[in-house]
Amino acid sequence: MQAGGAAPGSPGPAAPPVVQRTGPMPTPGELAAFFERCSWPRALTQAERSAAFEALTVRCHEAHSHVCQRDEIADSWVGVMEGFLSVQDTTLDGRLIMYTGVAPGGWVGEGSLLKPEQRKYEIMATRPTVTVHLPRKTFGWLLERSIPFNHFMLSHLNERLGQFIAMVKFDRLLEPTARVARGISGLFHPVLYPNTDATLRINQEELGWLVGVSRQRVNTALTELEAAGLIRRGYGYLVVMDRQGLSRYP
Q1: What is the DSSP secondary-structure string of 150-192?
Q2: Would residue 146 count as lying in a domain?
Q3: How many folded domains does the chain comprise?
């Protein structure tokens, strides 16, 4: 995909990919296929799509490594090609809090690009993960140039706000099994994470961080949800059988 047709002042050639672990990098064809599955490029003209694609960089991360540090100035919008990200923070007493998880196909960090301030959270790879980065310069260029991209981003931010309001509501009103059900369902949000596969690679500890309950209580909740036919469990993963059922549980 070439960047021909981009207006003067559009982003230049992409920097070389940053490799943070050993192992094969995605091929150009795999990156192109990932890009085509994403929702936001569909809002762009062909010239804009080409410029955005040429600006992408790919990074590979080991499990439990930082993708983005707290207090840094965001330099890119982050997509997940493979693996799983935890958007998180740590309390003063050392307790980890996961605000949300990002499965393959999801993008995160748009809010940090819209304001020049330090990032208030960190992003960690919970397992070997491949991320795709749209640079701040290109992100800003699309905002200045494309009204459809602005409309997409307004919708995306509104959905993100709704996601976090729902999390607060569920935390205060629902019992633990229902919180686990809604937490799993939220990782399949049709706008924020439209390409999440039915097989979700997340363990009990990570689910506990996400919904604020103990690992033991998560285990009990998963047993109840499996008995209800909503999920099927495996070692280190679960298969969602009925997302709508999870979103309405109990």
Answers
A1: HHHHHHHHHHHHHHHHHHHHHHHHS-HHHHHHHHHHHTT-TTT
A2: yes
A3: 2
